[in-house]
Amino acid sequence: MAVPAWLTGTLVRTGPARFEVGETKYNRWFDGLAMLHRFAFAAGRVSYANRYLRSRAYEEAMAKGKISLGEFATDPCRSLFQRVASWFSPKLTDNCCVNIAQWADAVVALTETRLPVRFDAVTLATLGMHEYNSQIRGPVSTAHPHFDRARRRHYSYVLEFGRRSEYHFFGIDQETGRQSVLATIPVERPSYVHSFGMTERYLILAEFPLVVNPLRLRFRSKPFIRNYKWEPDRGGRFHVIEKEGGRLARTARGAAFFAFHHVNAFEEGDEVVVDIVTNPDPAVIDQLYLDRLRSAEPVTATGKITRFRIGARENVHGQRLSEVPIELPRFDYARVAGRPYRYVYGAGNEVPGNFIDNLVKLDLDRARHRPGMRRAATRVNPCSSRHRRGRTRTTA
């Protein structure tokens, strides 16, 4: 497929690229050491460059000739003393292989810890850690922050483990880079949460019943995610937080489900509407282990888009919007984030049991979909670009 002549600009991505260091191996797809990719488009042509993200995880692994820091599903062999010591002086991974954001004048790569890594978007040179202030406490975070264009403000959260664990939502001013805590939500058994939702007035934290006792993390002898337990009888919870003031506006309970990615959210009358790519349980986590992906076994790594309506009386109703398998969802974020929208793009499964093998476009208003490209390549998040005539185009 030719590169359209009107497409001008630069696309920068991060992703896992190295899965073995010496005799040691990473266990899961997104545990691999991060590589930055830069695509420059002009006059119908594209140029490409890449560099490894020189994170501490990368530098220590290269120096020692083996994996040094634990990842989502990979943990180096450690003695009991080392495991206890790591709780009091944690060496979190900064292997930022999931997403990229721009906060004020800093371009950062992100993963699910509180350690974003700054880099030069032109040369791809690693510049060092991006520090949070002392108010933003907790080791775990999200690689999918949100940006409110009207407020010129980014939103994210960190999870602080303890006897009473707490989600701390915070904002970053786009112009000044100033950071401030917006709200704190205490929980007894924190959930594994990969992303969250945003409307024009609210932030939405969806908690799934894949939960952990923080004490298990103190003396863990297994990778991070293996300390979590699926407890479907707990159901799911939606916390709705006001952007202005940080008040917890409502908490709604619903049936159990699991998800990695929110799609979009918006307000409709008194209801907060949240669209999420859902799975019935967390079995999808096991689908992304490298041994499975490299085997001949069928892989199911997609979900279905479900719309949840959270009422003012803290009731929640879920409705499946499409039966088309999809993951890594994208939409025209710059134009309709937090607002009613119509089209979703994502990576899909055309052949049952195949790993991600095509791109799909869903029309949520008409419950239709349009299959996209299917070629022998790994699909990643599609992204939208603005045509010079104002139309939005989406490609891989």
Task: Explain what this protein looks like in three dimensions.
- The chain is mainly beta and 396 residues long.
- The protein has helices spanning 56-64, 80-88, 214-218, 284-287, 290-293, 333-336; strands spanning 9-18, 20-21, 24-25, 33-42, 45-52, 99-103, 106-110, 117-119, 126-129, 140-141, 146-148, 153-160, 165-173, 179-187, 197-198, 202-207, 210-211, 229-230, 236-242, 248-254, 258-268, 271-279, 304-310, 316-320, 327-330, 343-348, 358-363, 368-371, 383-386, 392-395.
- Strands 10, 11, 12, 13 and 14 form a five-stranded antiparallel sheet that branches.
- A hairpin with a 4-residue loop joins β12 and β13.
- Mean pLDDT is 90; it is low at 392-396.
